[in-house]
Amino acid sequence: MTYQVALAFEDGITRFIKVGPRETVADASYKARINIPLDCRDGACGTCKAFCESGKFDGGDYIEEALTDDEAEKGFCLPCQMVPESDLVLQIPTTSDVAKTAATTYSSTLTEIRRISESTYAFSLEIENRDDLSFLPGQYVNIEVPGSGGQTRSYSFSSGPEVSTLSFLIRITDGGLMSTYMRDVAQVGDQLNFTGPMGSFFLRDPKRTSLLLAGGTGLAPLLAILEKLSGMQNPHPVHLIYGVNTDTDLVEIDVLEDYKSRIDGFTFDTVVGDPASSSEKKGYVTNHFEPHHLVEGDVDIYLCGPPPMVEGVRRHLEAEGIKPQNFYFEKFALAVTPDAAAAPEAPVAEAPAKEAAETPVAQPAYEIGEEHATFQAQFDARMALELAIVELTMGKLTPEQLAEFKVLAELAGKTLSGEKFVDAAEFTVTNEAFHQFLFSCVGNEHLLQAYNRLEVPATMAKVLRQEHWIDGAVDADHLAIVAAFENQDLAAARTAIMAHNEHAKATMAAASRASK
Fold first, then answer.
1. Which helix (H) or strand (E) holds 514?
2. Which residue intervals of 250-396 are DSSP H helices?
3. Neighbours of 329 (CB within 10 A)
4. pTM, to two decimals
5. At what angle do helices 375-393 and 490-515 cross, to 10 degrees?
6. Based on CB atoms within 10 Å of each CB, which residue in 304, 348, 376, 434 is the most buried?
7. CA distance 269 to 278
8. DSSP 8-class letter at 180
9. Where are the beta strands (DSSP E) in 57-199?
10. Pairing verdict, β 366-372 and 326-332
11. pLDDT (0 to 100) of residue 467
């Protein structure tokens, strides 16, 4: 049997491959001319190590040095050995550029434009080669605006991966490039090009209660998620809270009602920020969290909305002492308005998925991220990014950059004394400067943002509140990484980074236990 495997790269690009019976993921990738990290091909080096987000597989044969039992239990895998037993989603620790691949561009026909509220339109596209387009529910594409000279705007699919027609939502914004086209120019039959799929905001295998939170037309990717869930056997409850600013902003309620009949255990609430609303539930979405929605933290949260909404939910959870098992979010900037600064606590989103900041003076800005219940996932994600960045920087640093890299390692070491901190706060600062250095050398803003979104320094500052034990190998790890760059030894650098990750997690675990 043939399975579909999604290869999600660190820069947001996702490529899909078909893997045949008894075929490894690595072999199928290279047949498709996607050069994922690979070296020994025998399960001995760990170069190809990836993280399986969802699906089942036979892990194959490998040695402990390549993949530990603890890593395998957490979901790490070796594509050179693994054989799928279902469709899979793999996080590949490198960029699409390094893997010598890219997102695909499709030519589509505009088949429908519907005005579904005073400010919101729905539109649909069809492509001839629909079977060639695969995506994960929650992902987006960049659509080229006709007549704009090649400028694009990003939109999340509101339709599911198995639906033949591709659907999207757009909030009409005065002066917006795509808004002006859709409202004033677009005609059924127009040709539009788009590139994708992209993004790491997508549905994972449901393993517990799910809470979906939508702000405005941030509803779009959650509709795609619901469509996927409607075709699955999911024994866990799913609740959606859909927030808007005014009654007229509510859209697709009939679609949500239909999903109630198609998805066992699915419920939803609508919340309107306007105090004069006729809605039963008003104010902030966080005002309407119920204990059974959060299950004392045993919940996966998916949130698509503007930054104030994302931060508001995060602050509410912290105040309640609830750490969700997984918190996946997609946030985007609001359109620039004269009174925007005066209203940072907007209850819900005014903005559509991705196009929210579309004005003549501001380009769209959005951010995708995730948070997990343990710091281990943060550090593993940092390691994955660093393993990718060494591929881009090995052998390319100038003598001056190498010297600076070494100085940063030595400065971090000066805040330590054997297995003790001299100054834990100062170590957090100098350690961060060391880890961020290679990202600044590359100049890839996407990778740097992905690294910064992990917020490792904030976690360290919170956990390392006082001087205590630190794994004595941490200082040596920093110097070993520098030495590998001085010797242009990629394998040594990767080995040192992976060892350092384990030593850092051991330090954090000890600090967490000491603080309890």
1. helix 490-515
2. 253-262, 291-294, 307-319, 375-393
3. 24
4. 0.68
5. 160
6. 304
7. 14
8. H
9. 57-58, 76-77, 83-84, 88-92, 104-115, 120-126, 140-144, 152-156, 166-171, 191-198
10. antiparallel
11. 66
Tokens of 377: 């996932």
Which residues are CB-neighbours of 343 under 8 A, at least 6 positions away? none
Whole-angstrom Cα distance, residue 363 to residue 148? Answer: 14
| Beta-bridge partners for 350 | none
- Beta strand 209-215 with 238-244 is parallel
pLDDT tens, 495-504? 999 999 989 8
Residues in the chain: 516
Give the pLDDT confidence score for residue 286 in this predicted structure: 93
Residue ranges in the chain modelled with pLDDT below 70: 332-374, 465-467, 512-516
Please give the Cα distance from 167 to 160 (Å, whole number): 9
State whether residue 195 is helix, strand or coil: strand
Q: Hey, how many other C-beta atoms are within 10 angstroms of the C-beta on 419?
A: 15
- The pLDDT assigned to 175 comes to 85
* Closest listed residue to residue 34, CA positions, set 11, 57, 53, 8: 8
Give the model's pLDDT for residue 113: 96
CA angle 462, 466, 467 (to 5 degrees): 130
Residue 341 has a pLDDT of 30
pLDDT, residue 339, reads: 32
Q: Which residue has the tokens 């649909």?
A: 124
pLDDT of 306 reads 81
Q: Domains, the chain, ranges and CATH?
A: 3-92 (3.10.20.30), 104-198 (2.40.30.10), 209-372 (3.40.50.80), 375-515 (1.20.120.530)
